[in-house]
Design a protein that fits this description.
By secondary structure, the protein is an alpha+beta fold. The protein is built from three helices and 14 strands. Strands 1-5-6-7-3-4-2 form a seven-stranded mixed beta sheet. A four-stranded mixed beta sheet has the order 11-8-10-13, with no helix packed on it. The protein has a three-stranded antiparallel beta sheet with strand order 9-14-12. A hairpin with a 5-residue loop joins strand 5 (59-63) and strand 6.
Length: 207
Amino acid sequence: MSEVRISAEPRTEFGKGFARRARAAGKIPGVVYGHGEQVRHVLLPGHDLMIALRQANVLLNLDFGDGQSQLALPKDVQKDPVKRSLEHVDLLLVRRGEKVTVDVPVNTTGEVLGGAVLDQQLTSVSVLTEATHIPTGFEVDIDRKEAGFQLFARDLVLPAGVELLTDGDQLVLNVTETRAEISEEAEEAGEGEAAEAGEAAAEESAE
């Protein structure tokens, strides 16, 4: 994964009023914490941060403007419930070589066979990995998979050095029949049972 360098200005004012003014000026309030260090309140460039956060588990190289820089992972991103604009972000300090626990997306490629439906139970799994080598996602090929295909967490192919924390027996996805096919099968089964019942009734009448 790549690092994204981003400026982090010290923040000395607080409160909702200041936060609104900061966002209006294109800055997003945030806090930086971890490793027993004192919490730092910062302002981050909104546009750059929005672009960076498009990457899952993006590693930010925070430039504090005083010759110091530190690596951090976004841990809590708050957005406006309606506008979906950034409002606040919590950043966790990490070090190179340090192991961190993160949720990594599970993405699918391809299309299941016609007449089948993909049922994805987990959209991400939890792993333990080096902070500077976080997988961007796990790809699962479902192309032309038929009803009955299943994939569990233990079946995911993990890069070297990445440990699965999600229970390996958890179902990630499976391919099922469409409701239409299930209805047709049920209807056929019902017709078959009705025919058998009719034959039995006719036999009893003949006796």
